[in-house]
Amino acid sequence: MAYVMALAIVSAMAAVNSVAGAPAAATTATQEQSSSAAVAEALGIADADVGGSPVQEREQLGQLAASRAQRESEQAAEAAAAAAQAQAEQVAAAARAEAEAQAAAEAAAAAEAAAEAQAAEAETAAEAETEKEVAAGGSTAVSVVARISNSAGSTRSQAQAAANAVVSNVPGADGITIGGTRASAADPGGHPSGLALDYMCSPSLGDAIAEYHIANWDELGVEYIIWQQRMLSSPGGAWKSMENRGSATANHMDHVHVNYRG
To answer: What pLDDT shows up at residue 148?
Structure first.
């Protein structure tokens, strides 16, 4: 604004000089001096800062006005740039905050899912352990009579009693097939004698039946157990691997074989 006013005053001074000519030089000089003072006041500078002839004063005032206008323009540009920078920083900060909040929410959801999965896994393991304990350390009391398939005479009483205890106390065992006597067995002290039983079962149920016999070894009169190509001859002993007999059934992968003492 000061620059515009100064230019207007300087232009007016030039017009006056052009019209008045030389005869009015003294009057014009006085007017120019007054005008210079007015321009200096509009520019916010002291009249003492401008000196020389009227022409020189006009030139100096024009230069000062242009310099001030340039400074004001630069200051306005700097202010606009600072405002744009501040706005950009605000936008970036908001974006970072949103990203951090989303990451925190995702992490919390993942932690919750992991905790739920861990709890479910622990519950499943506890249930399996409970079933195993029930099967292994359960009572030998009999509430169900086992149905044994025999093809070579009757099963001995101790084998029948053991089978009755198994189907009465091992969950899921009451519906399985139990093989008893058969003449085709190679071991005369096993199936042909009526002292051996084959409990046909799944792997998990087979584990439970084997554990039940181990936990109640003496009560059931166990002599040895064959399960999944391994043999156990005492409750505190170690399972011993057996040779491969060529099939799942021959390797006792689908049934637990138990020989009872006669």
So the answer is: 97
